[in-house]
Design goal:
The protein is an alpha+beta fold and 379 residues long. It folds into three domains: 136 residues; 65 residues, Helix Hairpins (Orthogonal Bundle); 150 residues, Heat Shock Protein 90, CATH 3.30.565.10. The protein has nine helices and seven strands. Strand 6 and strand 7 form a beta hairpin. The protein is rod-shaped and about 150 Å long. 20% of the residues are buried.
Amino acid sequence: MMNEAFRYITPVTYFLIVVIWLYIIVFYFKRFRQRQKEDKLFNLLLFILAIDAFRTIFEGVYFGIRHSALAGFLPESVFTVLSKPQYVFLPKVVTFLTGILVLIIVLYRWMPAELKQKKAMRKLVEEKNKMLINQNAELLKAKERAEESDKLKTAFLNNMSHEIRTPMNGIVGFSKLLNNAGLSSKKREYYTQIIENSSTQLLQVINDILEISTLGTKQVMVEESEFNLNELFSEVYAIHKIKADEQNIALNIIKGLPDGKSMVKSDKMKILKALNNLIENAIKFTSEGYVEFGYQVVDNDLIIHVKDTGIGISTENFEKIFGRFSQEEKSTSKLFGGLGLGLSIAKENAELIGGKITLESIKGKGTTFYLNIPFVSAG
């Protein structure tokens, strides 16, 4: 009875396996088409499974037909034919060939693709690591800049307090002394001069603070007009000659164009602010020798220079000195005073009119600043 049942169940089982594998292979090929461009290894896996599915289906059909004939579902002659050695050997040949094909695919397609994918993954990980290292470095630099900025602002506030308090003390103190009825005219004149100098110093501090605040809004307008460059330089010379004489240093001026050809079109006030700050800076840091300023026209550029024989600047600090609230060294602020805004104001005004400031310097021998701006003749 069991043998009889087995006899009928066996062909049904084989055909059931064929149906299941046909369903699976259809599903595989649908997924293969969907992921054709996504993953080479997955595609190869589907292909290998399809080969194995073909082998299983072939065996299922072969043995299903053979056992169906044995069970009496098909003519006995079918079983006789399929039982011949050449046909019995056929499933083994198919198994062997599909095995060889799978081995070839694994060796020549799967393994190279796997190695390539691993290499790509390693490269991606390395790139991500480099990116993270660079980002960490940038964050560290940003942190250092923020800390430096905080230090500079603190130093600026302390320095500003000193720069405001000093002239204010002079103004208040000597104003009280002027009330002394028995004060001689000579002392009265001397005290008045101190009050005037202190007022000028205080006004300069306030002007610098207001100027840097205005530049910080990024809403400064460029107002071009026609003016005589030689006249402007003469006015600047007259303003700074007094301070240069007080420090016993020579102030020299060089004009690059004749008076009749020195009409230009630009933003006069911004050139004036940049030039004044460069000259004030040069005079402040020059204790002996001279300060020279002038200009020349080269091609389409107006090149203004301010040269001094002062303390000079170290090469590594060329960029630093143009930062807001910055001076080359902390001792510089204590020795020469100032808020460290002059060069920043000069640089930002120059950039507003399409110019730039560069410099040459030798520590202990002097500095030359160059203000390059577009030259537009109005003559």
